[in-house]
Amino acid sequence: MTGLGLVTPGGSELDSTWSAVLAGRRTAAPDPELAGLPVSLSCRVPALEHPVLRRRGSARLDRADRFALAAVAQALEQAGLDPGAWDGSRVAVVTGGGLGGVRTQDQAMARFTELGPEFVSPYFLTGYLMNMVCANIALCFGVTGPALSTCTACASGTTALGLARELLANGSCDIALVCGADAGITRLTVTGFARLGALSDTGSRPFDASRDGFVIAEGAGALVLERPEHAAARAARPLAHLIGYAASTDAHHLVSPHPEGRGAEQAVRAALADAGVRPEDVGHVNAHGTSTRQNDTVEAAVLRRVFPHRPPVTSAKGALGHTLGAAGAIEAALTVLALTEGTVPPTAGLDVADAGMDIDVVAGEARAHPSSVAVSTSFGFGGHNAVAVLARA
C-alpha cells in the first residue's frame, strides 16, 4: 500500500478524518432531509472541493462517484503516481459499494412521477448503475486494465481489497486502485434500514451496553496497492502491506449474523492463515463494530475465541457512522494509519462497555500501542464476511 485517500463525515481528506477519529469526535447530527422520519440522524461529508471535481461533466455525477474520485486522487498524490505518465493497461480499478447511485435514482423517480418520462435526465442510468463508480475512476485516470465492481453489502470495501490483491498476485496489473464508496443517505434508504430496526436516533455506540443501532453515513476510502517489485523500482515508500485476506458466507439469514459467528470466525482464521501469522501476533483489531445489538455481541464472541490474548479493539463507526459499502476501505486506511503511528483510536460513543463481551475495546482516548500486524473485519447483509490482515511497513 503506497497511497491512501479519505472522504468521510470526519473530513474531506486523510488528515482531517484521522484527527476526528483519533479525537473520538462524533459526527452524527440531525439531518433536515430526513425530517419527519422515525430516524433523522445522519453523518454527512462536509463541503467537498478537489481539483478532480472541476473536470467537465463532474457536476452530473452522483455523490458516491464524486467522493470516490476525490479519494482516489488523494491516494494517487500520496503515492506519487502520475496517471498521465503510466501505462494504463497495467493498472486495475476495483471498487466496492452497497447501493449504487440511489440519490440519482430518487431524483429520476421524482421527476418521472411528477412530470413524466420525457423529463427524466439522460444521465440517470450513468449516475445510478452500480459499476459507474468504477467506470468513472477508470475514465478519469486513464485506466485500461481490469476494472471490476464488487457488491457484498457492508463488506464491499474489504472484498475489493481482496480482489485487488489477487489481480496483483496473478500478474494482471502492477498497480491497483481500490475504492469503497457509498452515498445512501436518502429518505427511502433510511426508511428501509429503520424498518429493519437497524438505526439509532440517539447515536452510534459500538460495544456499549446501551447501543441500539447505527447512524447512516456516506463517504469513500481509497488505497493504492502495488506489486512490491513495481513500488521498489520507482523508489516508492510503502505505508503498509496487505498480507492476508479471506472471505466467507454465513448462509444463515439475509440480515442477521449467524448467532455463533461461524462464518465470521471462519473468515478471520482463514485470513490469518493466508497471512502466515498466529492469532497472538495480531497487535490490534479494527472491528466492524456497527453498534447494533446482534453484530457487536456476535463479533465480540468471535474476537474473544480467536484472540485470547485480548488485543485492543476499536470501531470507527462511533465517530464516522456506518458508511455501508465504503466502510471496509475507509477502515483499512484507518488501520494503516494506526499501524504507522502506533496508536489505536478510541471507539467514540462507548461510555459503558457491555459487560458480557470481555474484549478490550479502546474508549475515551486514543491508546499508544505499537503493532506490527492488525486485522480489519467487515460483515454485510446477506451473510458476507471479509477480513484483511495488514502489516506495518
TrEMBL record:
Residue span, Ketosynthase family 3 (KS3) domain: 1-392
Protein origin, superkingdom: Bacteria
Sorted UniProt keywords: Acyltransferase, Transferase
Pfam assignment, any one: ketoacyl-synt
Family matches, as PANTHER family: BETA KETOACYL-ACYL CARRIER PROTEIN SYNTHASE, POLYKETIDE SYNTHASE-RELATED
Family: Belongs to the thiolase-like superfamily. Beta-ketoacyl-ACP synthases family.
Protein name (Swiss-Prot/TrEMBL): 3-oxoacyl-ACP synthase
Biological source species: Streptomyces bambusae
